[in-house]
Amino acid sequence: LVVPVVRDADRKSFAQIEQDIIDYAGRAREGKIQLEDLQGGGFTISNGGVYGSLLSTPILNPPQSGILGMHTIQERPVAVNGEVVVRPM
């Protein structure tokens, strides 16, 4: 499990965070990720939805406090007040 840490995310714009992620991805492809790039995180966001994932069990990267697994939103049948209706899930 390789999870680069976006440092000071609370003080960055979405564009700055996106640029950090792009930079990490480039370094990962080139095999240039350093150990310090992977240490010191507090929370992970995992987006399997970009690959069409509907369900998974995200793996917590210790000592982080939590992980949020995001997945594809797809219309599915659900029960609402005794009726079957289609809702995005």
Strand order of the largest sheet: 1-2
**Helix percentage range:** 10-25%
**Radius of gyration (Å):** 17 Å
Count of the domains: 1
Structural class computed from helices and strand pairing: alpha+beta
Order of helices and strands: HEEEE
| Distance between the amino and carboxyl termini | 27 Å
Shape descriptor: elongated
Number of helices: 1
- Biggest sheet layout: 2 strands, parallel
Strand content: 15-25%
Give the low-pLDDT segments. Answer: none
- Please, what is the average pLDDT? 92
Strand tally: 4
Description:
This protein is α+β, with helices and mostly antiparallel strands and 89 residues long. It has one helix and four strands. The strands form two sheets. The protein has a two-stranded parallel ribbon with strand order 1-2. It has a two-stranded antiparallel ribbon with strand order 3-4. It starts with 13 loop residues before the first helix and ends with a strand.
Write a concise synopsis of the structure shown:
The chain is of the alpha+beta class and 89 residues long. It has one helix and four strands. It has one domain (9-88).
